[in-house]
Design goal:
278 residues, Cobalt-precorrin-4 Transmethylase, domain 1, Methyltransferase, Cobalt-precorrin-4 Transmethylase, Domain 2, five-stranded parallel sheet, 10 strands, elongated
Length: 278
């Protein structure tokens, strides 16, 4: 029988952020394929895991990939980890997973920490939908196209950036998507010096150290819409908020924050709902 390849999410900072299942799978695996064995060895030492480690990264040779797939085809049980977070999200490994799946190997995800989801949770503005851009291109057509997508998207956009390029990227965002868009710049998520700066692009750029230290995840607010979402029962929301004593202005701000509507559209929706109620 073919073996099993477990894609194991590991902490993005705090070594305590790992699931009980992930610890069990790492202990039971015959081999841990690690992006950087030095990072993973620290995690294993913290949790008393003595499973052998082997380096496996974006530059691993085709011969090495083929050898791993052959072992899995023969029944081996391996775990794949990245330096931090969920593997294959802006990390190497997709080629291995594709070949292993075609070889009949069972592929399982062991979910856990993700810088993308952590940043969305602390961003402080509505996230009904989001897209993920990974690391932005440093220049050229690909970078311009990324900014065009952000400018036109009503979904929030998450991307990674280096400390030495974040100031330039925020300036480019101001130019391409506008100074009114809200942004959250999350630095060193889950670590001792964790910091999240929230607000309009120019305000956040001015508050951010140049250059800041640590790993950075950025969440850009989606483009605000003039049209209410079809799945939002505005009347029911407004009736509940009225019972709680909220003013029309407060209700409009709530619609704006929760659903991304433009200010005038949100206020008009509240007026329409209250007039129908009367």
């Amino acid at each position: 029988m073919a073996g099993r390849l477990s894609i194991v999410a590991t902490p993005i900072g705090c070594l305590e952020d790992i699931t009980l299942r992930a610890l069990r799978v790492l202990r039971e695996a015959e081999l841990i394929l690690a992006e950087d064995t030095r990072h993973t060895r620290t995690l294993c030492a913290k949790h008393g895991i003595d499973t052998p480690l082997r380096s496996f990264h974006a530059h691993s040779s085709d011969e090495k990939v083929a050898a791993v797939v052959d072992a899995l085809r023969g029944g081996a049980r391996f775990a794949l980890v990245s330096d931090a977070g969920t593997p294959l999200v802006s990390d190497p490994g997709a080629h291995l997973v594709s070949l292993a799946a075609k070889a009949g190997v069972t592929i399982e995800a062991i979910p856990g920490p993700s810088a993308v989801l952590a940043a969305l949770c602390v961003a402080g503005f509505r996230v009904r939908r989001f897209s993920f851009e990974g690391f932005l291109a440093r220049g050229g057509k690909e970078r311009r196209q990324a900014f065009d997508r952000m400018r036109d998207s009503e979904a929030a956009v998450v991307f990674f950036e280096s400390p030495h390029r974040i100031q330039a990227t925020l300036r480019d965002l101001e130019e391409h998507v506008g100074v009114d868009r809200e942004v959250a710049v999350c630095r060193e998520l889950t670590k001792i010096h964790e910091q999240t700066l929230r607000g309009p692009l120019p305000e956040v750029r001015g508050a951010l150290a140049d250059p800041p230290k640590g790993e950075i995840t950025v969440v850009l607010e989606g483009k605000r819409s003039d049209r209410p979402a079809e799945d939002v029962d505005v009347a029911a929301l407004v009736n509940g908020w009225k019972r709680d004593g909220m003013t029309n202005k407060e209700m409009a701000e709530r619609l704006r924050d929760d659903f991304g509507w433009k200010r005038n559209a949100a206020y008009q929706a509240v007026l329409d709902a209250t007039s129908n109620d009367d």
